[in-house]
Design a protein that fits this description.
The complex is a heterotrimer. Chain B contains eight helices and 20 strands. By secondary structure, chain B is of the alpha+beta class. In chain B, helix 3 (107-121) packs across helix 4. The mean pLDDT of chain B is 89. By secondary structure, chain C is an alpha+beta fold. Chain C has three domains: 2-26 and 167-266; 44-160, no CATH class; 329-518, MetI-like (MetI-like fold), CATH 1.10.3720.10. Chain C contains 20 helices and eight strands. Chain C has helices spanning 2-51, 56-61, 104-122, 169-189, 196-215, 219-237, 240-250, 252-280, 293-296, 301-307, 327-356, 364-376, 379-389, 396-403, 415-443, 447-455, 460-488, 491-498, 509-519, 523-554, and strands at residues 71-77, 83-88, 93-98, 132-133, 140-146, 154-160, 313-316, 319-322. In chain C, helix 12 packs across helix 15 and helix 13 packs across helix 15. Chain C starts with a helix and ends with a helix.
């Protein structure tokens, strides 16, 4: 641990971090600036170079929580967060509930269609959801009558999360020694009970990680929600944030404050999980 | 009466045949060892008894019952796995009790049985621990406990000692054998280790992979010493004994002697002769390393004397293993500790005890007929 | 062989039934068109009455046309107070009231038509009311605007469900008799022996198809039922169903466990894919959705238009213009986008990983954690923030440029600079992933190899090229490929940062598909576009799998 020994590396890293952190600091400064302007300082009519610099440096002229309180007061932001929470939570629950048995069957049994099924799950992962938007929209809003509803969104999320969950969990189930289950068979335990009492408890850590990942994916999803949800009350947080800085409005202060509130929980989750990332 | 019998059982995985036409009887209360190299179908045979696999054809009986299509849980057998297969999320006590709980046994009886098993295996202190907190030997005991607490009519062991270190293996070997005698329960024990096979079993069944057993798995069944002294074929002869048996080819002269590398040797008197020993017939001769002695054996006619170059000497302390190149081929001899005067790179003379020759047909690899 | 011929005959018959049924569908279609025309007429009449100064409710009561049964008319005057007046077919009149939340649709309709009207006036066109007929699946809605001096625009809406038309008797009879012939033939000529059950089933299905066909006219349903029944019959006859049933029973737990996931996926993933493929063979847009699928069928025309258009540039008045909507331009942009991003991501990630992997570096863990932050933040937030940073007027980047005495840049007005904005945002997003992967790979390299190399006098540069790079390549390759696919599909960044500016020049394939489908309502064309994208991804996957296999065997 010798700081001076590696000083060129430290210098390089700190410079890069400064550069990389600028957008984050800028958003934080906007959030606490108390104004809706993009510039962090008032630009006079004929600004000097110094004025420009002040407008870009990530320090607001005065610190204020007005953007946060305004977000709660003027906009249904808490409801948006709540919607996101409901959709992400239900998506995770549904995804895990349908993925666990499927992953177990794919991992443990040889049955006709097993390989084809797994391959299908892989293919559906490859096919970006955005290009299925039109058919999905028809199915969800016309056939299932779930347009502009959180339920419809949850269904679509769960279906897209399921293949990922199945592959993750199958990978983990593959590592559970089959002898444990055979031993249970010899003990006279039925298949469903083996799954419920032996396999699921053993897979708890993997299920937790998978669940958190699919929660984060749903929490961060933007474009499907933007298309499916029309009513402002039903917006999820991403749609709401986008709404704040669309072509028609530019509430940058609210956007920045909201971004911080939306990012904090997932960033915390992310760092808690980071050792499982790769 | 809970013997086990295989009646022409065959088994294939995805079209690959592993067991073919297996006929075998395990007696009631017997400790039967299935031994053989990997791929010989010994584990498959065990799993067929357990019901974890179903035969492609043939029947399996446990006691008087045909269990071929019976679910594992209804076969009244218990199995100990190589990896122990303990439930990692349950305590030792829960592990042992689980099978009983599943069978809806009253709680007080479960407790009594768990206590009894724990005492028998010396696990009283560990009942509240999880498997992760136990040593290999302790886990092994828990696995044993889980099997015997059910008081099944058959115990099945699938290489239970191969994950233990050498010392512990010796201890557990004796313990399992003792336990089996005490409980007097029919037991099938699978291993690839011939020491375990020789020391533990009442009887041994030597199994071979189908390609090496000429389309059959079962090479020989019998008491350990019977197999060692009188291997029924080349496979068993090679498999049992370390270092393994020496082999060389000879040709029958027709007068109860064999010709080999210009030398002549007598055929042991027990061999019947007949067409297999007709003049000009080839014979495969086997001799165990411990039946080769140093020096020319004087005074007795027919002692087979060969000389050769010493390639390697392994001095083990209580004995010395010598590897020689001789005119009849490489010969390994197990000699007493102070085998004097042997040096690598020099010549040595060995006498092979002709009363201990094993004769095999080189075609069928079967032992030639004997009158005992 | 006989079975084949019988199958062919039955198939033909069933197809005939289907066709007959479709004819009836056409009759229904005609009835809908008739109702739509009526509704439009009434709407126009009401609108002109109101335009002449009558109050909505009065106009409605005095209307000359007769509302078809099941229809109602609405007069909406939008504005600060949006008022709606309603009249039913029976002539019942409801007093004017405020719009409810569910009726926002009408409000939008009023403003939309008013805007269209205003544009017509501005462009000097004749002032002419516009009529929108949305002959949706079952619903008809005709709308006519009326200008109002005070209180904003207004609109008259006539909407309702047309009564099912009575079907021509002759066609029903034709369909029924055709099915009957099929029914009889099936019984007579099916080979004796196995498959008696199958015959019975097939006959039942043929009969059911006939009945359905003669009463409903929903030809798709009939055809599906008939073909399904036929296939089922064949399957039973050949013992397939029995086999399948046995398999299902034998692996009952596995199938039960897989089915919920498979069902969800089938409904919301595979079916949309399939439906997308079907759409890609049609010229479906928002406006002809209600027509029968067969009428919209246009074969491979969409693919021809996407893949067969090689005119990337147009020469105009001595200048060469690029057709930004051309598939090959977008493909080129997408490939450039993927390539540059992956290059930047890998270089940054690997460079940082090498720095962090320095033996005994102080604070390495802290640096790593900070550098992971961009990955932790939802990417749409990142994209929107960068959009703000690049704002030409107030964005921080132009402020910094001006602080340095430089001219501000209009980032989104040229292809190069617009591309750069998305590139910057995505590079910022993607370097942490490559950094983590590279760091993991570097830490797995055996240190003794470096020591051996040092003993042999290899320079640090030499060590990197000859030891580090070959050692980490197997671990890095899958992640690089993965990030290439991610980048290829990185919708959010392009959509939210450059937004395709200028004029669609910086669109990538996936955002372009979105524009065609969602913004231009060209469902068929967008579906074909999506299939092309999927094909490219599949091709990439196959090539990659092949390369992987070759590398494996070479080892």
């Amino acid at each position: 641990m010798n700081f001076s020994k590696h000083w060129p590396i430290h210098l390089g890293l700190i410079a890069f971090i400064g550069l990389a952190m600028y957008p984050i600091l800028w958003v934080v400064a906007l959030a606490f600036s108390g104004s809706q302007d993009l510039t962090l300082a008032n630009l006079p009519a004929d600004p000097t170079q110094g004025d420009h610099l002040a407008a870009a440096l990530p320090f607001p002229e005065r610190w204020s929580l007005a953007n946060f309180s305004g977000l709660m007061r003027d906009l249904p932001f808490l409801q948006w967060m709540g919607n996101s929470l409901i959709v992400s939570g239900l998506t995770t629950l549904a995804g895990i509930v349908i993925a666990c048995p499927a992953a177990y069957a794919f991992s443990r049994f040889r049955f006709p269609g097993q390989r084809a099924g797994l391959f299908l799950f892989l293919v559906s992962q490859m096919y970006p959801v955005v290009v299925m938007l039109a058919p999905l929209y028809v199915i969800v809003s016309e056939w299932l009558r779930l347009g502009d509803s959180l339920w419809g969104l949850m269904l679509v999320y769960a279906a897209t999360a399921a293949p990922f969950c199945v592959w993750m969990l199958k990978g983990y189930f593959d590592t559970i020694p089959i002898e444990i289950e055979e031993s249970a068979i010899m003990d006279g335990v039925s298949r469903p009970r083996i799954f419920w009492e032996i396999v699921l408890p053993l897979a708890r850590p993997a299920i937790a990680v998978t669940a958190l990942f699919s929660f984060m994916t749903a929490w961060n999803e933007f474009i499907l929600a933007a298309i499916f949800l029309e009513n402002q009350d039903k917006y999820t947080a991403p749609v709401g944030l986008r709404f704040l800085v669309s072509d028609y409005t530019a509430d940058w202060g609210y956007f920045a404050a909201g971004s911080i509130l939306v990012s904090l929980p997932v960033a915390a989750l992310f760092f808690a999980l980071q050792k499982n990332l790769v | 009466m809970t013997g086990i019998s295989f009646k022409s059982v065959s088994m294939a995985y995805d079209g690959v045949r592993v067991v073919e036409g297996l006929d075998l009887e395990v007696q009631d209360r017997e400790f039967m060892v299935f031994v053989g190299p990997s791929g010989c179908g010994k584990s498959t045979a065990l799993r067929l008894i357990a019901g974890l696999e179903r035969p492609t054809s043939g029947d399996i009986h446990i006691g008087a019952r045909n269990v071929t299509q019976v679910e594992p849980k209804d076969r009244d057998v218990a199995m100990v796995f190589q990896s122990y297969a303990l439930y990692p999320h349950m305590s030792v006590a829960e592990n042992i009790a689980f099978g009983l709980k599943v069978r809806k046994m009253p709680a007080d009886e479960i407790a009594a049985r768990v206590k009894e098993a724990a005492e028998l295996l010396g696990l009283q202190k560990y009942l509240d621990r999880t498997p992760r907190q136990l040593s290999g030997g302790q886990r092994q005991r828990v696995a044993l406990g889980r099997a015997l607490v059910r008081r099944p009519s058959v115990f099945l062991f699938d290489e239970p000692l191969s994950n233990l270190d050498a010392e512990l293996r010796g201890v557990m070997r004796a313990e399992i054998a003792k336990l089996q005698r005490r409980l007097a329960t029919t037991t099938v024990y699978v291993t690839h280790d011939q020491v375990e096979a020789m020391t533990m079993g009442d009887r041994i069944a030597v199994l071979a992979p189908l390609d090496r057993g000429k389309g059959r798995n079962l090479m020989q069944v019998g008491a350990p010493l019977a197999l060692y002294d009188r291997p029924a074929n080349v496979f068993v002869a090679k498999f049992l004994g370390a270092p393994r048996m020496n082999f060389f080819s000879a040709v029958s002269n027709g007068d109860r002697t064999l010709a080999c590398a210009g030398l002549s040797l007598d055929i042991p008197t027990t061999y019947v002769g007949g067409s297999a020993l007709a003049p000009g017939k080839s014979v495969l001769v086997g001799i165990r390393p411990e039946h080769c002695t140093l020096g020319a054996f004087d005074g007795r006619p027919g002692g087979f004397v060969v000389s050769g170059l010493v390639d390697i000497l392994e001095t083990l302390g209580h004995e010395t293993i010598a590897y020689l190149s001789t005119p009849i081929g490489p010969i390994v001899a197990k000699l007493p500790a102070g085998a004097t005067g042997l040096k690598v790179g020099e010549n040595a003379t060995l006498t092979l005890d002709d009363r201990r020759f094993h004769l095999f047909d080189p075609e069928t690899e079967a032992r030639l007929a004997e009158r005992l | 062989m006989t079975r084949f011929w019988i199958g062919a005959v039955i198939g033909l018959l069933l197809a005939f039934v289907g066709l007959a049924a479709q004819q009836m569908g056409a009759a229904r279609q005609q009835a809908i068109a008739q109702s739509a025309e009526n509704a439009t007429k009434i709407a126009l009449e009401l609108a002109s009455a109101i335009a002449e100064g009558q109050a909505p409710v009065t106009a409605l009561t005095q209307s000359q046309g007769e509302l078809p049964p099941g229809f109602r008319a609405l007069a909406i005057s939008a504005g600060a107070r949006t008022v709606l007046a309603e009249i039913n077919a029976g002539g019942d009149l409801a007093p004017p009231r405020r719009l409810t939340r569910d009726e926002k649709l009408y409000y939008d309709l009023a403003f939309g038509l008013a805007t269209a009207l205003a544009i017509n006036v501005e462009e000097g066109a004749r002032v002419r009311p516009e009529i929108n007929v949305l002959a949706g699946r079952e619903q008809i809605r005709a709308a006519a605007p009326f200008p109002r001096a005070e209180g904003g625009p207004g609109v008259v809406v006539v909407e309702g469900r047309p009564a099912p038309p009575s079907l021509p008797l002759s066609r029903s009879l034709l369909a029924f008799s055709a099915a009957l012939v099929g029914f009889v033939l099936l019984g007579r000529f099916w080979p004796a022996g196995q498959g008696a059950k199958a015959v019975a089933l097939a006959r039942m299905f043929a009969l059911a198809a006939a009945i359905l066909g003669s009463i409903s006219g929903a030809w798709v349903g009939v055809l599906t039922a008939a073909i399904g029944g036929y296939a089922l019959a064949l399957a039973i006859a050949s013992g397939g169903v029995e086999q399948a049933g046995k398999t299902l029973l034998k692996h009952n737990f596995a199938y039960a466990a897989v089915s919920p996931a498979l069902l969800a996926l089938t409904l919301l993933s595979f079916f949309p894919m399939f439906y997308g493929f079907v759409l890609s063979l049609t010229d479906t847009t928002l406006f002809n959705l209600s027509q029968p699928l067969l009428d919209r069928f246009n074969g491979l025309a969409n693919y021809g238009r996407i893949l067969g258009d090689f005119q990337v540039t147009t020469a105009s008045e001595g200048r060469t213009l690029i057709n930004y909507g051309n598939f090959y331009w977008t493909l080129g942009v997408t490939l450039a986008w993927t390539l540059t991003n992956v290059t930047i991501g890998v270089s940054l990630g690997l460079g940082l990983a090498l720095a962090l992997n320095t033996q005994g570096l102080a604070f390495a863990g802290a640096y790593r954690t900070i550098l992971l932050l961009p990955w932790a933040i939802p990417n749409y937030i990142t994209a929107l923030a960068w959009k703000g940073l690049f704002n030409p007027q107030f964005g921080a980047i132009n402020q910094l440029l001006q602080a340095g005495g430089l001219e501000p840049v209009s980032w989104f007005d040229q292809f190069g600079t617009a591309f750069l904005t998305s590139l910057a945002a995505n590079a910022w997003l993607s370097f942490p992933f490559m950094m983590v992967v590279s760091l993991g790979a570097l830490q797995a390299v055996n240190r003794e190899m470096y020591e051996a190399a040092r003993l042999e006098g290899a320079s640090a540069w030499r060590q990197f090229w000859s030891i580090t790079l070959p050692a980490i390549r197997p671990a890095l390759a899958p992640s690089v490929l993965l990030s290439a696919v991610w980048t290829f599909n990185m919708f959010n960044v392009i959509f939210l940062v450059s937004g395709g500016e200028p004029a669609g020049a910086t669109e990538i394939l996936i955002t372009q598909a979105y524009r065609y489908g969602i913004e231009e309502y060209r469902y068929g064309y967008a579906a074909a576009y999506s299939i092309v994208i999927f094909g490219l991804l599949l091709l990439f996957g196959l090539v990659q799998a092949q390369a992987g296999k070759r590398a494996e065997t070479a080892r």
